[in-house]
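Hey, I'm writing a tutorial for new members on how sequence and structure tokens pair up, and I'd like a real worked example in the thread rather than a made-up one. If someone can provide the structure for the chain below, I'll link this post from the tutorial.
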Amino acid sequence: MLLSLNLFTFLIVTGIVGGVISLTTIVVILITEKEVEFLEVEKKRAELEVLLNESKFLHLSSQIRPHFLFNTLNVISTLIRLGKKQEAEQATYAIASLMRYHLKDGEPLVSLREELEYVRHYLTIQKLRFGNRLSWSIEAPDDAQNKSVPLLTVQPLVENACIHGIEPSVHGGEIRLSVHHEADLLIIDVVDNGIGVSDEVIAEFERWKETKQSADDLLSIGIRNVHSRLVHQFGSGSGLTINRLGQGTASRMEICYREV
């Protein structure tokens, strides 16, 4: 019997609630369903939106971009229809891990190791979406990964590079995340070779850091939030800077532990 759209939607969201085991089981069920290829993707997406908006994950959906959630669910369904079992399981595990990480919302600080693992899950999903148009790398010394960072401050930099740098580029590009540290200083660089942030956006960001007022909505709230949280948690010696490269954008997060 054809797997109904309502049941498909219910299984995906229930799987996210139930954890990795439930998610893996659901993917296997969906993949072995012979008639799954006949699912009407557009109608399913509409039903997913309704269910997500009514679910207890509404709070998480407001933190994780709703479009990212829906796009990820569509990626999973497409992979299933194409018979790509391993990739579908990979995407399902990644989105479940992202959503569970948001349950740490009450924890002001986490280890950089945890934050980078979140970034890896995020980039895994984006890689499945963009295919060969996106490549990425993360380099971080083991001892630096034990440093404490505010929850969900690294991923917005990567998301900004992906959405505003790589996605609009016809040929895609590469995102490189690197970590450097000294005794009291942690530096996290996120560099992409996409279309590059405009001088106007950089000027507005610098003006906002001085005045906390923004005349235009050129820069994402997430980026401003990262800078504010760093300064609030670690003092004025910490924060975020953004620079335009010859091709692409470089974002640098600095955390000065001396002021804590």
